[in-house]
Amino acid sequence: MSRLKSAAAVTTVCALSAAALLAVPLAATGAELGIRINEVESSGDVPGDWIEFVNTSDVFVDLSGFVVKDDGDDESYVFPDGSLVEPSAHLVLDEAADGVGGFAFGLGKDDQVRLFDRSATLVDETAWTAHAAVTWGAREVAGTVEWAETTESTKGAANVFAPDAPVGGSIVINEVDSQPADWVEFHNSGDAALDISGYEIRDNSDDHRWQFLPGTQIAAGGFLVVEESTIGLVDGAETAFRDPIGIGSADRIRLFDAVGAQIDDTLPWEGHAAIDGDAAAATLARCPDGEGAFVLAHPTMGGANSCVMPDVVINEIESNGDATDWVEVVNSGSTAVDLSGWTLMDGDPVGHAAETTPLPVGTVLEPGAYFVFDQPTDFVFGLGNGDTVTVRDANLNVVDEHVYDAHAAGVLARCADGSGDFIDIAVSTKGQRNACGNAVRINEVESDGGSPGDWVELVNPTASDLDVSGIVVKDDDDTHSYAIPAGTTISAGGHLVIEGADLGFGLGDGDTVRLFDGGLLVDSTTWGAGHAATTWGRCPDATGAFAVTAESTKGQANTCAGEIEVSPWPGSAEVRVLDTAPTFLEDSSGLDVQETADGSFLWAVDNGDGRIWKLEAHADGSFSQIPGWESGKRVRFQKDASDPGAAGPDTEGITVDGDGAVYVASERDNSAKGVNQNTLLKVDPDASAGDLVAEQEWDLTALLPAVGANLGMEAVQWVPDSALEGALFDVNSGSAYDPADYAGHGDGLFFVAVEDNGHVYAFALGADGQATLVSEIAPGLAGVMALDYDSVLDVLWAVCDDGCQGQSAQITLNGTAQPGLAHFARPAGMPDINNEGFATAPASLSVDGQRPVWWFADGFASEALRVGTLPGVTGENPGENPGENPGEDPGANPGENPGEDPGENSGDDNHVTDPSGLAATGVEVPVAMISLALMLVVVGALVARRRRRSA
């Protein structure tokens, strides 16, 4: 019989009574489903080692498919179907006897037990460094779960522990009042009373002393207050506390034991504590009780302290729509606040304790100023779709906290700025005043006599028309006011210029422009002494902070120093969704296209569990499912070859080399999400009908910049040497790339992109697992999520996600350290979503001068894959003449339907298309002329060039 207590057997296991139930906060153990590890036998009971689980919830928990491991990943146990645990009940998993039954691994002297859910997410874990004399068990202590040795083995029942070993009594100074009454409070945080006979209080002078009377005790966990009239001893005589010690405005209190050793010290303070000028309303105290430095507090004589938290509040939360998650705070008070040691936390303070970084010493937030806790500098965990954001001081006191139910469509922000309720607003203002009220923003100011005079330019930063009727514009003088006329609107992304003649007042040097929506200040900007040499505007346009612009751009997007010009998308403005029904998982990432003699194939990867898909690509941009690939195949690390339950690689990118081998780029091991590990894994996609274990791995972590765990390698692209020789700049030789310099690297290089810095790195991969950095390229994007080699234009595409509005860079290699760069906006019809995959079609899929291009978006169960167009090959469909097809013999008549007859079972039932077809709108002017010129240059090279070779 299996040692597993499954569905029927669990009902006979002793249920915990309401009194004995360990009421563990599930978030504290990571066991959000209500199940956790409860007791462990590691030193050979009968029949052997065993692991006990408990359901702390009030509903059944289904463990089917959950995985149990020790400290290694080479062996695991998977719960069979029907493994149900009743509410408040236990389930015991035994070690297999003679290889039959439960888990096959033994539990060692220095080991651990880990529980993973069906998606390979860690649910709970416990570790030990020695066998327990009896067993190890979990218990609740002060609202958290702690592990300790039990006094008896209670397999399948509530744990039993010896009474806690006493820690004794202790005493510290806890609270001090110096005005209007003098008193000092002490606290004993121990579990026993403490005799403090002869203990002595001193202020800042050793001549001022007062001793506790013989027999004085402070109770366990209690507070003791010495008031002005409290009687003690001074030189052996009974004396009131007020006689030797008067607590001053610049003073300190110290505590010494009976032999004269100093126990505690408040350290000096200056000025009586006061709140809003009221000294009677304030004391100096520690929070939490007995810990940390003394701070301003509300009086709580003889009770738990209530400290006054600084006037720092959470002001704006970005959990989903930017390049990183971030939380903005603002100092709404009138004094500077020292943020040294402060931390940000989400709703899992135990599980993410190691994923937050205290702010460095000297971090000070001035009154009215903003500070942003940002990934990965200040924290590496992600803010979830419904989470808690907590700002904590250096003593882990909660300064401010906000709980939200779901991601915002825009951002969550306080309105009014710094004081109002949180609302979902469209415009992100990281590190700046929130975009409350009307979303209109000041964008550019001419204060020094432009044409024809001073003017103020406003911008609509939203995606829809904006009514700005009645918005009031002022300078630094409230009597200077201009109201925008009724019926005035600004188109989406558009600009409105208000001339100085209409304003009715001039703008001076060192002046201000303010916008009001009714009585609400919605935006303002101030420039210092003097006028801007050009104009004063937002950089980047519409969203950035104000700075001196590169040139005046009245009524148009601002041009800023060092800013890169972005052109319209060079293909169709329209895009369409291909997967209207759920086809992939929700963590879609990389894409690549493989061209073979049997047609063209689209490869896709998901970063949740390392799953890849192979799809047949068609000239109209649609795809067909391929038998055996409908559910994809998981890629696994070599170390996890015998462990199907392993969490696996965080696969962000995918590419195919000239021999048909598939490579995925992983930025971390999903079993250690807090550690960046940039690894390329090579698999044979046909090696198995199920999981694909890596044939070879290359760890590039040490060769790439040190970044946060989730800001590493986001994309990979194989490019043949034929496209790189003499064109790529080699950082090792200082000249154009020569493949002969890298023996044994194959016939191409692998380009990878790093999200954190937006750079692209080219590597030669050796058969021995070694990698050599050949080149580094800065595409001029804030981050790069996708790469693709475009064999038609002979360029490398680098693509950013919604962190930079879906912009892309077209990289033309020219043999120098400064390749040619052209930047493009996303297609007009593409929503600003988290596209992490991008792939262009080869010339063989061109029809009427257009060819498909695909995007793959993270975070969608459906509508993840979209298709648009790019210029292809003009004239006849190159697929009709195999001799001219750079794919080399793609088939007898690929022009009729390149996806036709890929195999016996790939009929029309699996063909995913859109009856509306794909709009071919041509290329926008002036990009059309540029693209045509590029096309004429490269058409002649198409005969000699090819994108992929099949095996």
Would you give an account of this structure?
This protein has 951 residues and is mainly beta. 3% of the residues lie in helices and 36% in strands. Strands 51, 52, 53, 54, 55, 59 and 74 form a seven-stranded mixed beta sheet that branches. The protein has a six-stranded antiparallel beta sheet with strand order 18-13-12-25-26-27, with no helix packed on it. A five-stranded antiparallel beta sheet has the order 7-2-1-10-11. Strand 10 and strand 11 form a beta hairpin. It is flat and about 105 Å long. The chain starts with 6 loop residues before the first helix and ends in a 12-residue tail after the last helix. The model is unreliable at 1-31 and 874-951 (pLDDT under 50).
Total strand count, please? 74
- Enumerate how many helices there are, as a single number: 5
Mean pLDDT: 85
Reported for the largest beta sheet, the result is:
7 strands, mixed
Beta-strand percentage range? 35-45%
Q: How would the global form be characterised? A: flat
Helix content: under 10%
Structural class: mainly beta
- The residue ranges in which pLDDT falls below 50 over 5 or more consecutive positions are 1-31, 874-951
Rounded to the nearest angstrom, the distance between the terminal CA atoms is 50 Å
Radius of gyration equals: 34 Å
Question: Care to give the gist of this entry?
Answer:
The chain is mostly beta strands. It is 3% helix and 36% strand. It has five helices and 74 strands.
